[in-house]
Amino acid sequence: MVTTDQGLFTLREAAYLRSLPAVKEVTASRIIYSDSFKVECVRRYLKGESARKIFREAGLDPALIGNKRVERCVARWKTTKYIVEEATGADTEHLPDEYPHIVAGGGYRC
Asked: Is 48 part of a structural domain of the chain?
């Protein structure tokens, strides 16, 4: 669990996060995820899996990184064109009507 009042990661927590394949970089207050994790996360999320479950299975326990962070990341990734295209194997302009919540967007980093 994040132990400081300001939500900063300890050195031990940052080292643990860096060791995960889903994580590209870590600072005291920020995690940058690998593109492959973002794509896999959106792919599984669009199939109905819980975002928390996906993160937890990648070693990213919401108790450590924060529930809001999980929610915000998935919210951004599912509206990012290149991630959705990779996750669905389709051009977002031609997605079926079952994906009305997906908006072609820019490349946010979470």
From this structure: yes
The pair of three-digit structure tokens given for residue 110, joined into one six-digit string: 């979470």
Asked if the structure places residue 106 within a domain, the reply is no
Phi, psi of 36 (to 5 degrees): -65, -35
Which conformational region is residue 10 in: left (phi greater than 0), alpha (psi within -120 to 50 degrees), or beta? Answer: beta
- 3-class DSSP state of 26: strand
> CA 20, CA 75: separation in Å to the nearest integer?
22
pLDDT tens per residue across span 13-53 = 999 999 999 999 999 999 999 999 999 999 999 999 999 99
Q: Collapse the DSSP code of 33 into the 3-class scheme (helix H, G, I; strand E, B; otherwise coil) and give the result.
A: strand
Token pair of 2, please?
């994040």
Yes or no: say if 58 and 22 are a contact pair by the CB < 8 Å rule: yes
Cβ atoms of residues 78 and 102 within 8 Å: yes
Residue 69 within a domain: yes
- Its pTM surpasses 0.90: no
